[in-house]
């Protein structure tokens, strides 16, 4: 039976799984935190129940074999393995990929029936026809009448707009439906009905296919190491090619235009945020997680060491995606002036609001000091682009625009790679191959002009200058 030890407000639970080849005891441990405002007697009962469920899962792990279903392997992986290996944001992304793309296709299959051919079939299906998703609809939307929606939102930890969508009979994700059902003290199937919908209007881009493949392979690799399966069926799968979406980029003139149009925005944080992205090439999460303590306006540098993301209805800070993403970015005089002015405005704003100001120390914030989301910046950007008939790009594409400007200005790839926080120059070259190809054509043109009687050095410099900001 499991061992249960009370430690303050939590319970430490330990399960013994016998002994290994060296005679050492194999133990699995976890922590249970009972809900608030329950009696000690009730908390002990809940802890005991949780402990026995934990023991079942642990014992089940020792009996895993190729006859288990992939969905069972995924559940075990995300509960027992992934939380210790992955950052929370990566974990949430991989759960999303499994739930929306992989499980609807192979989740019901036994591991022994999942071959490389099956994986090929799944990847090709996703590439050509998009995802097959499971959504949930409330059986009785009247449970979420106007007066109950806000309390339900708080109790479930779900956005109010999502609660409203559920009340209208709209589709919601399984994880969200489970939270709502739990808030009402019900099981998922008591309140919701499952609906499978295939989104076949367009396939998935090659980059997304690669992410799905990587996440799936990691799960099979874990099963391989645990001797649950004898080979990873993803290793020799063939990824479909050629469905990479053509992206629009802002050129130098369009970037200048956009910087001018930012003055039309009423929200100063949006103005400063978008300007900073254009000048620095930062990721939007890095910008939203940027704090004044990491900005040196005298030296003109920004230290990138945090990224902001949202999970369970809360904003959270994490270190950037790779070690190379921890970097110092030099900022031009124009951006220094913008940031100095914004800092003064923010200090004045905090004085006006007094205790209402939520001091996070962030550079770009909401109007009361709270963290700003990259999603808000994206919506604001798209509205501005549409108004002025500029290419419809995503906020992340401002990073690509910054990189393209540097490449066309003749900046060496090593410096661009460090500036963007890439792990190596190959990543930079692969992502911006089309820009390098375009630049190479201009260099060839310069050589041609020079050999026709011009000066090769002046011709090359002229072409580089034409592409500088």
From TrEMBL:
Domain annotation Tyr recombinase: ranges: 245-445
SUPFAM superfamilies: DNA breaking-rejoining enzymes
UniProt KW Disulfide bond keyword: no
UniProt GO BP: DNA integration; DNA recombination
CDD domains in the record: INT_ICEBs1_C_like (cd01189)
GO molecular function: DNA binding
Keywords: DNA integration, DNA recombination, DNA-binding
Family from the record: Belongs to the 'phage' integrase family.
Protein name: Tyrosine recombinase XerC
Lineage, uppermost ranks: Bacteria, Bacillati, Bacillota, Bacilli, Lactobacillales
């Amino acid at each position: 039976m499991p061992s249960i030890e009370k430690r303050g407000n939590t319970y430490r639970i330990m399960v013994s799984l016998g002994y290994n080849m060296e005679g050492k005891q194999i133990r699995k441990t976890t922590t249970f935190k009972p809900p608030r405002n329950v009696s000690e007697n009730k908390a002990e009962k809940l802890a005991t129940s949780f402990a026995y469920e934990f023991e079942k899962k642990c014992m089940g792990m020792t009996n895993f074999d190729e006859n288990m279903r992939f969905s069972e392997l995924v559940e075990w992986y995300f509960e027992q393995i992934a939380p210790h290996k992955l950052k929370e944001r990566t974990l949430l992304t991989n759960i999303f990929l499994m739930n929306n793309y992989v499980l609807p296709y192979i989740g019901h299959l036994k591991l022994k029936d999942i071959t490389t051919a099956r994986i090929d079939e799944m990847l090709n299906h996703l590439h050509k026809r998009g995802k097959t998703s499971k959504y949930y609809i409330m059986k009785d939307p009247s449970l979420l009448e106007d007066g109950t929606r806000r309390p339900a939102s708080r109790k479930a930890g779900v956005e109010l707009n999502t609660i409203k969508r559920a009340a209208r009979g709209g589709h919601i994700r399984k994880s969200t439906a489970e939270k709502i059902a739990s808030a009402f003290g019900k099981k998922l199937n008591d309140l919701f009905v499952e609906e499978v919908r295939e989104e076949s209007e367009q396939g998935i881009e090659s980059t997304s296919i690669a992410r799905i493949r990587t996440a799936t392979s990691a799960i099979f690799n874990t099963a391989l190491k645990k001797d649950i399966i004898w080979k990873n069926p993803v290793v020799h799968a063939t990824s479909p090619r050629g469905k990479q979406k053509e992206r629009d980029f802002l050129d130098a003139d369009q970037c200048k235009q956009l910087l001018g149009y930012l003055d039309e925005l009423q929200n100063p944080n949006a103005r400063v945020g978008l300007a900073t992205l254009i000048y620095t090439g930062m990721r939007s999460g890095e910008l939203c997680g940027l704090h004044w303590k990491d900005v040196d306006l005298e030296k003109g540098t920004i230290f990138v060491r945090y990224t902001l993301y949202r999970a369970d209805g809360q904003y959270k800070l994490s270190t950037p995606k790779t070690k190379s993403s921890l970097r110092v970015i030099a900022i031009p005089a124009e951006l220094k002036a913008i940031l100095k002015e914004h800092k003064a405005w923010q200090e004045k704003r905090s004085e006006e609001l007094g205790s209402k100001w939520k001091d996070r120390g962030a550079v770009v914030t909401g109007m009361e000091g709270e963290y700003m989301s990259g999603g808000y910046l994206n919506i604001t950007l798209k509205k501005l682009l549409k108004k002025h008939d500029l290419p419809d790009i995503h906020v992340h594409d401002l990073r690509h625009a910054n990189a393209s400007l540097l490449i066309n200005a003749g900046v060496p790839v090593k410096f661009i790679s460090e500036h963007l926080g890439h792990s190596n120059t190959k990543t930079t070259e692969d992502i911006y191959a089309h820009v390098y190809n375009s630049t190479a054509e201009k260099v060839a043109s310069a050589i041609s002009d020079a050999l026709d009687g011009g000066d090769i050095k002046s011709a090359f410099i002229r072409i580089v200058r034409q592409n500088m900001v």
